[in-house]
Amino acid sequence: MRGVSRAGEGLRAYGLIAGMWIRSTMAYRASFVLTVVGNLLLTGLDFVTLLLMFSQVDALGGWTLPEVALLYGLSVTAFGVAQLAFGSVAALGGRVRDGSFDTLLVRPVPVLAQVAADRFALRRVGRALQGVVVLGWALAAVEVDWTVARVLLVPVTVVCGAVIFASLFVAGGAFQFWAQDAAEVQNAFTYGGTTLLQYPPTVFGRDLVRGVTFVLPLAFVNWVPAAYLLGRPYPLGLPDGAAFAGPLVAVVCVLPAAAVWRLGLRSYRSTGS
After folding, report:
1. Torsion angles phi and psi, residue 151, rounded to 5
2. Which distant-in-sequence residues (6+ apart) come within 8 Å of 128 by Cβ?
3. What Rg value do the Cα atoms of the chain yield, rounded?
4. Looking at residue 181, what DSSP letter applies?
5. Tens of pLDDT along 200-251?
6. Which residues sit opposite 63 in a β-bridge?
7. How far is residue 183's CA from residue 172's CA, in Å, rounded to a whole number?
8. Which sign does the torsion angle of CA 37, 43, 45, 49 carry?
9. Element housing 115 (H / E)
10. Is 186's pLDDT higher than 70?
11. Does 25 have pLDDT greater than 60?
């Protein structure tokens, strides 16, 4: 019961802090719109790269352009949502180094909520919007035998993918309690992970696919559910119900991320400044 109450406090605090930063951002609406459009166009260059590839080939690893666009849309949308909600955690190392993290500890609010909502950047919504646009086009272009299960799988996959990426943001942020300048290590798994998932698993070595499936289960962000939607074989011959394991995988990612965060918080030592 106390855990539920604490979670409620965290969500309320997150909303209040994020709302403050959103109001600050919207004070300059023209600047905000231009920033979002610029962010959307900049992140869209990744998809332009795919389009240039397919201008020279008909398939990539046996996957057509609409099928790869489906992978891209699922990955970027999920990552965009996670980055919007938890992207600020990447700056934790800076707070630890300059001693400003101490101010978060004396407030009667969950620290993670404060860190995640700090300097909430609404401009990051551009990445998620760009992913939604590509995902919408891909869903209309691919040949899928739509059933109720397949229709429901799409939003569930996006939500679970966002939770998986959010767990990486939190775990990476917690790592900075020990290695105070490790933002790039975190980026290798978050930004690098979403870039990896934009391409079909058939273009990668079996060992890499195995690691992304069983060690760091990013494959459940898009590779596995997309294979089910398209009627393709699962990577590594996973069992039939693997496409619907997203919620379970998300929970499996959240639990260790939360444990690492608590461990890092307990091990924190102030700079004294």
Report:
1. -65, -45
2. 76, 77, 80, 81, 83, 84
3. 20
4. T
5. 999 999 999 999 999 999 999 999 999 999 999 998 889 989 999 999 999 9
6. 60
7. 8
8. negative
9. helix 111-117
10. yes
11. yes
